[in-house]
Write a structure and sequence with these properties.
- The protein contains one helix and 38 strands.
- It is an all-beta fold.
- The chain has three domains: 8-112, no CATH class; 115-151, no CATH class; 156-509, 7 Propeller (Methylamine Dehydrogenase, Chain H).
- The longest helix has 4 residues, at 61-64.
- The structure holds calcium ion (3 copies).
- One calcium ion binds next to strand 28 and strand 32.
- Keywords: Repeat, Signal.
- It comes from Sander lucioperca.
- This is Thrombospondin type laminin G domain and EAR repeats.
Length: 510
């Protein structure tokens, strides 16, 4: 536009013209007294253009670009249009620049309006705008598809029963992952060794059994990739000699997971996989050896020469139940959930930070039978939520209805500080997920001292108020929650440690 002189007319806020601009329907707003009123609506002030006739607000460019001789190459005008009724299937100019005098169009911003149905978008439509009046979204055609410029983000409406997944035995953990070119998979950690644990594949909108892998009281699966190769590691918890957990690798030719490496573990309950400084690591949560809970958990590092994991560091843990890896800027952290030291569940769980080539204690946090750490970030704030499962009492029965706690990293004091306590019932898992721009936590409530039939609760982030309960989901022996998305939408799945029924829920949005 830079070559144009300033003697142009800018026409904006012209929602009632239909592509044709003429001198008759231009209303210079500063001259049309009575036609334009200053109005206030719900706290915002604006100009109301009166009259049912096609109306245009127009003014010479020289009035706003008063300090430049030429029409600027880049400029922005901020305007809010409020139209009481929007006619469907219109093709409207909402902004145009015309040559003063001749009225010939130099620049026009025009949007098609439909109630949901996308207009054609191919070569000829490239650069055209489309306003979807139903979803209140503004799209631009890139020559192939409509891409979003502005849209009303999806919001969670309700959670709906979607699939009953009957597993071969009780399921302690599910792990969702995708195999490129093959699609979405779910590994279930099942109690029985025959037929073992189920690997499911998402086909035609539901999970279907794909492969059985013999496991020994499997408690957790973790998937990871190294140099494009896909791996699964299982935590086998059965105390038989030798106690081995197994790493499997996806074989593209046989379309199956095949055994890759075995590692000695002790009542293993969890594996975490992570990458740091171009190295791949695994860490196992060794829960117990015989009756001793105060044992070593082990961090392994991948050796690219041997294509095997090797011991890198050992860490003293007390009834370790879960590991969680996370990074904050250049710093890498590992958090362990310590459940029990042989005496009590009121012990410390530890956050480690990677310094000088090994993990060192960053902070010890008091927990009560900790079973899970979940980390997440909201608007740059770093949170860590612990699931507290039970308070063992010297006298009387254990307490299951206790607080679980969300901590926030205070970057000034460099410590995690209690942010919010949430009452849970033998919590064994937290899962963080987002829908559109909304952020949620769902807890696995497993037991209240008498029943395994409990509501697990979805909490929504409410900013200043923290997390607020918004949905209750009936669960039975809930052990693990996972969130996943497919072409069909977004879902939650939970596994049951007390029944053979796991369930998939669909997240309905509006
Ligand atoms: Ca899981
Ligand atoms: Ca974990
Ligand atoms: Ca979790």
């Amino acid at each position: 536009m830079a070559q144009f002189k300033r003697d142009l007319n800018i026409i904006c806020l012209s929602p009632f013209t239909s592509g044709h601009i003429s001198s008759q329907n231009k209303v210079p707003w500063w001259t049309q007294e009575g036609e334009v009123q200053m109005v206030q609506s719900k706290g915002s002030r604006g100009l109301r253009v009166a009259g049912a006739e096609a109306t245009v607000l127009s003014f010479p460019a020289s009035q706003i670009f008063s300090n430049c001789d030429y029409f600027p190459a880049e400029f922005s005008l901020v305007a809010t249009m409020k139209i009481p009724r929007l006619r469907q299937k219109r093709n409207e100019y909402i902004f145009s620049v015309v040559e003063e005098g001749s009225d010939s169009l130099l620049l026009g911003l025009r949007a098609r309006v439909t109630l949901g149905n996308p207009p054609p978008c191919s070569g000829p439509e490239q650069g055209q705008l489309w306003f979807n009046a139903q979803r209140k979204g503004l799209f631009i055609c890139d020559g192939l598809t409509w891409t979003t410029l502005l849209h009303n983000p999806e919001r969670l409406d309700y959670v709906e029963d979607y699939q009953d997944l009957y597993t071969s035995s009780e399921t302690f953990d599910v792990e969702i992952f995708s195999v490129p070119s093959e699609g979405l998979f779910m590994a279930a950690a099942n109690r029985d060794s025959r037929p073992g644990s189920g690997i499911y594949r998402w086909r035609n909108g539901s999970f279907q059994l794909y492969q059985n892998i013999s496991t020994q009281e499997a408690r957790a699966w973790k998937h990871f990739t190294i140099a494009g190769k896909i791996f699964l590691v299982v935590a086998n918890s059965r105390e038989a000699e030798p106690e081995l957990s197994v790493i499997y690798r996806w074989n593209q030719r046989r379309q199956r997971f095949l055994r890759h490496q075995t590692l000695e573990t002790h009542a293993a309950l969890d594996w975490e996989a992570f990458q740091m400084h171009n190295h791949s690591f695994l860490v196992v949560a060794n829960h117990r050896r015989d009756s001793n809970h105060n044992i070593l958990s082990v961090i392994y590092r991948w050796n690219p020469d041997t294509q095997l994991f090797e011991v890198n560091q050992t860490v003293a843990t007390s009834g370790a139940y879960d590991w969680e890896f996370f990074s904050v800027g250049p710093y890498h952290f590992l958090a362990v959930a310590n459940t029990f030291d042989g005496q009590t569940t009121s012990i410390s769980s530890t956050v480690y930070v990677w310094l000088d080539g090994c993990f060192q204690v960053f902070q010890s946090i008091p927990t009560v039978g900790a079973t899970d750490w979940e980390t997440f970030q909201i608007h740059g704030r770093v949170f860590l939520a612990v699931a507290n499962s039970q308070k063992v009492s010297q006298r009387g029965p254990s307490l299951y209805s206790i607080n679980s706690t969300v901590y926030e990293l205070n970057t000034l004091t460099q410590t995690f500080i209690r942010f919010q306590d949430i009452l849970t019932h033998s919590a064994v898992d937290w899962e963080f997920f987002t829908v559109g721009e909304e952020k949620f936590l769902v807890v696995a409530n497993s037991h209240d001292g008498s029943s395994y039939s409990l509501n697990s609760v979805v909490y929504r982030w409410q900013g200043y108020e923290g997390f607020v309960a918004v949905h209750s989901l009936p669960t039975f022996g809930c052990r693990d929650w996972e969130h996943f998305s497919t072409d069909q939408g977004s879902f939650l799945v939970y596994s049951s440690a007390t029944s053979r029924l796991s369930k998939v829920f669909k997240l309905r949005t509006y």
